[in-house]
């Protein structure tokens, strides 16, 4: 009986898949870069509510947003709900990232879609703060 339980537990664990951040439309991309807040690239990130776009990172660029004094978030600018197209690079505003293909919007504070019918949030990346350096990775 114990072996049967362990087998079922093992099968259950193998079948679990955390796809909360994975859009079936977006390819994988390696993201690993550093932003120095003391340099011009980090000027817009010095105060909460500021953001900076890094065009040649991720799939279609990465936006880093400062939510508070010590909390930063980063998202890929590829529209997460559609196949990659010429128009599928989101633009960044004060509160939303907008997909120009269909004008769907995603909140810049957490990547959540504004429209409840959209299945995927913007792809997020990990951000760690060490002194004046931000490291963005996946």
Q: Which descriptors apply to this entry?
A:
Rieske Iron-sulfur Protein, 138 residues, mainly beta, globular, 6-stranded antiparallel beta sheet, 9 strands, disordered N terminus, 10% helix, 3-stranded antiparallel beta sheet
Plain-language structure description:
The chain is mostly beta strands. The chain has a single domain (2-137), classed as Rieske [2Fe-2S] iron-sulphur domain (Rieske Iron-sulfur Protein, 3-layer Sandwich). The protein is built from one helix and nine strands. The protein has a six-stranded antiparallel beta sheet, with no helix packed on it. It has a three-stranded antiparallel beta sheet with strand order 5-6-7, with no helix packed on it. Residues 3-21 have low confidence and may be disordered.
Strand-residue fraction? 25-35%
Quantity of strands, as a count? 9
Strand order of the largest sheet: 1-9-8-4-3-2
Roughly how many Å is the radius of gyration?
18 Å
The rough form would be described as globular
Number of domains: 1
Order of helices and strands: HEEEEEEEEE
Count, helices: 1
User: What separation lies between the terminal Cα atoms?
Assistant: 40 Å
Instruction: Output mean pLDDT.
Output: 86
Quick one: CATH superfamily?
A: Rieske [2Fe-2S] iron-sulphur domain
Q: Percentage of helical residues?
A: 10-25%
